């Protein structure tokens, strides 16, 4: 590769590392994505509002749900009701540990925090890491209402220690997730010294005189946050939210590794990071959409809508109000499918357009690229992979195929994505040639196979779908590995998909 190509790929990879570092939770990921989209000229809209006078051909918009899922789109100026929508779908969540609703614990002189497993993580990798907390907090807004604040505590405050090898001679390490996965937050004695309490739990004389009669306190349906959690944990959360402890009503906090994502490898060809599955594809989807519309006239001759959808809760089955199985995407597609064409000037003419089957027409001509990270061949476990399907990092985005429909890729979709990859333009300022490489992957017949949002969306919408993703190692670990050059290539692939789908759709028709 030339130095220009290397610098362009490195810049894209560093942008992904920055995105991951700023996105310890789906709430933060959506917030960061929204900031990127806003900077690129996308306008925020809300589901609860009417869009009839807001959305216009040539416009760029985004909408969020629950603060943890986001859909963004650009409308071609030649759009008319019933036309195709090109879509890239990803997910914003990753396997993690979530603080329980009542988390205050202590044992053997240690303060501990109760946590709940989220998704199918490789939990042994969470031991002996410098952990902190992040999430959203619901706080009183001072006007009788409540608002959401995002919190990310930068310093390590938690740790899950392993048992010394001298006390544990088991050959395998399979911790009990209910009894052996509680992190320590500090020492009871240190907390007593901080608060001025004695070992028997009694406060000093001055504080004791201020205890109020229970009948004087207002009724609370639930215990206060400082009763359900260690008070100092709540205080830290309140400080980072910029509110008083008394204003913290509830929160959703997860644990994350404070070690930053970084570029590694002896030739700086690798990315070492948490949450590559699936912030890697979320980031490339956002960047791909933005890249495809960055030219002022990018949408002038487009008769389609270019759309990304990044969902929460994929790691736990997507069954939620904001998951891929929800009505979030179908509801947005229904509203978009009936948008009138720009050239219909009069209000009466716009209202007279026949849109009775526009939604069904749009679904039948649209296409979804389901983007979720893929498995790279592991050099120490090469026998676990089908001998002719061993994707490598930095060799291009992987097309994932499964005869049992765990992935949605099929021949027409592969033909389409090949054409998209062949037409992919170099990044701005790069001397790379046109086109990006692709790889193929199937699991062994004697191996289990994961799945993605692809099958659930395809089966509910009937929309043509393909499953792709960049290759990575250590999926679902607290620390994962991917290739630097694949980041730029995936972004270029998605941008090419948006730019060329309108022309390619009519050339690959399988009814």
From TrEMBL:
Top EC class for this record: hydrolase
Record EC number: 3.4.11.21
An example Gene Ontology biological process: proteolysis
Required cofactor names: Zn(2+)
Example GO molecular function: zinc ion binding
Entry-linked InterPro entries: Peptidase_M18 (IPR001948), Peptidase_M18_dom2 (IPR023358)
Stretch list, region Disordered: 195-217
Keywords tagged on the record: Aminopeptidase, Hydrolase, Metal-binding, Metalloprotease, Protease, Zinc
GO cellular component, as recorded: fungal-type vacuole
Coiled coil: none
Basic and acidic residues composition bias: residue spans: 197-206
Catalytic activity field: Release of an N-terminal aspartate or glutamate from a peptide, with a preference for aspartate
Top-level lineage group: Eukaryota
One protein family per Pfam: Peptidase_M18
Family in the record: Belongs to the peptidase M18 family.
Protein name as annotated: aspartyl aminopeptidase
Native organism: Oidiodendron maius (strain Zn)
UniProt lineage: Eukaryota, Fungi, Dikarya, Ascomycota, Pezizomycotina
């Amino acid at each position: 590769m030339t130095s220009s190509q290397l610098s362009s790929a490195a810049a894209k990879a560093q942008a992904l590392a920055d995105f991951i570092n700023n996105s310890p939770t789906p709430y933060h990921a959506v917030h960061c994505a929204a900031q990127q989209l806003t900077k690129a000229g996308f306008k925020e809209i809300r589901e609860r509002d009417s869009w009839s006078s807001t959305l216009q051909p040539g416009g760029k918009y985004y909408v969020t749900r629950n603060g943890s899922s986001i859909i963004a789109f650009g409308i071609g100026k030649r759009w008319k009701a019933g036309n195709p929508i090109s879509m890239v779908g990803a997910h914003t969540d990753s396997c993690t540990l979530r603080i329980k609703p009542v988390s205050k614990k202590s044992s053997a002189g240690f303060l501990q925090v109760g946590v709940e497993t989220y998704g199918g993580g490789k939990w042994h990798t969470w031991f002996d890491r410098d952990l902190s907390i992040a999430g959203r907090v619901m706080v009183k807004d001072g006007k009788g209402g409540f608002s959401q604040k995002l919190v990310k505590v930068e310093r390590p405050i938690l740790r899950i220690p392993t048992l010394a090898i001298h006390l544990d001679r088991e050959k395998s390490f399979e911790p009990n997730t209910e009894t052996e996965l509680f992190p320590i937050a500090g020492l009871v004695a240190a907390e007593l010294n901080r608060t001025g309490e004695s070992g028997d739990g009694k406060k000093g004389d001055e504080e004791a005189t201020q205890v109020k009669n229970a009948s004087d306190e207002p009724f609370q349906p639930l215990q206060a946050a400082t009763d359900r959690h260690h008070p100092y944990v709540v205080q830290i959360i309140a400080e980072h939210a910029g509110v008083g402890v008394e204003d913290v009503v509830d929160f959703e906090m997860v644990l994350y590794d404070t070690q930053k994502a970084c570029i590694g490898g002896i030739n700086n060809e690798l990315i070492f990071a948490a949450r590559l599955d699936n912030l890697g594809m979320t980031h490339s989807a956002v960047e791909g959409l933005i890249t495809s519309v960055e030219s002022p006239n990018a949408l002038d001759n487009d008769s389609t809508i270019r759309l990304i959808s990044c969902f929460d809760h994929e790691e736990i089955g997507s069954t939620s109000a904001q998951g891929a199985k929800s009505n979030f995407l179908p509801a947005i597609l229904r509203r978009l499918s009936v948008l009138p064409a720009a050239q219909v000037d009069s209000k009466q003419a716009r209202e007279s357009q026949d849109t009775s089957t526009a939604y069904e027409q749009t679904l039948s001509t649209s296409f979804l690229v389901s983007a979720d990270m893929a498995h790279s061949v592991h050099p120490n476990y090469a026998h676990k992979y089908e001998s002719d399907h061993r994707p490598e990092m930095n060799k291009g985005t992987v097309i994932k195929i499964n005869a049992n429909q765990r992935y949605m890729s099929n021949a027409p979709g592969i033909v389409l994505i090949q054409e998209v990859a062949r037409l992919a333009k170099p990044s701005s300022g790069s001397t790379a040639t046109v086109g990006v490489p692709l790889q193929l992957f199937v699991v062994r017949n004697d191996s289990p196979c994961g799945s993605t949002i692809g099958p659930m969306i395809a089966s509910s919408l009937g929309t043509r779908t393909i499953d792709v993703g960049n290759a990575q190692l250590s999926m679902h670990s607290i620390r994962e590995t991917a290739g630097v050059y694949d980041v730029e290539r995936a972004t270029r692939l998605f941008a090419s998909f948006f730019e060329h789908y309108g022309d390619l759709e009519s050339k690959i028709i399988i009814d």
